[in-house]
């Protein structure tokens, strides 16, 4: 096989294997949230996981009993919906210290320390970066 046919074969394989990614439209979890500041960039509180929780989709994070979670926002529930908080989870092992962000159900954690008592209520938004988490 010469170089031109090898490049052609590579190109065909690349085109066949690469598919366009279509996003899945997910329903908003809430229309308003409570944060420590208008950008939701400050930690509101620290929570500890009471039980294990397995995330149902990419918006949520897995929790293991004993994990510490830094809470950045609290969704105001829509009628009939569960109450979810948004935060960053850290594990016990060094490899788990990277911090994974996402939503988790409020009833799986115990809020152990409040850093910001003063809060603001802001609408949730959808943007290119936050479409999974808004």
Automatic annotation (TrEMBL):
Swiss-Prot/TrEMBL GO biological process terms: cartilage condensation
Domain of life: Eukaryota
Signal peptide from the UniProt entry: 1-23
PROSITE patterns to which the protein is assigned, alphabetical: SH3 (PS50002)
Keywords: SH3 domain, Signal
Pfam families: SH3_2
Domain SH3: 42-114
Keyword Signal listed: yes
UniProt entry tagged with the keyword Signal: yes
Record's protein name: Otoraplin
Species of provenance: Triplophysa tibetana
């Amino acid at each position: 096989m010469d170089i031109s046919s090898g490049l052609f074969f590579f190109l065909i394989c690349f085109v066949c294997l690469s598919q366009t990614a279509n996003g899945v439209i997910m329903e908003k979890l809430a229309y308003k949230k409570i944060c420590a500041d208008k950008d939701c960039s400050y930690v509101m509180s620290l929570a500890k996981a009471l039980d294990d929780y397995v995330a149902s989709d990419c918006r949520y994070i897995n929790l293991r009993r004993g994990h510490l979670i830094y809470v950045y926002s609290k969704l105001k529930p829509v009628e009939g919906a569960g109450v979810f908080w948004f935060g960053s989870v850290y594990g016990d092992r060094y490899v788990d210290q990277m911090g994974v962000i996402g939503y988790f159900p409020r009833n799986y954690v115990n809020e152990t320390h409040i850093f910001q008592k003063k809060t603001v209520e802001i609408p949730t938004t959808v943007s290119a970066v936050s479409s999974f988490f808004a």
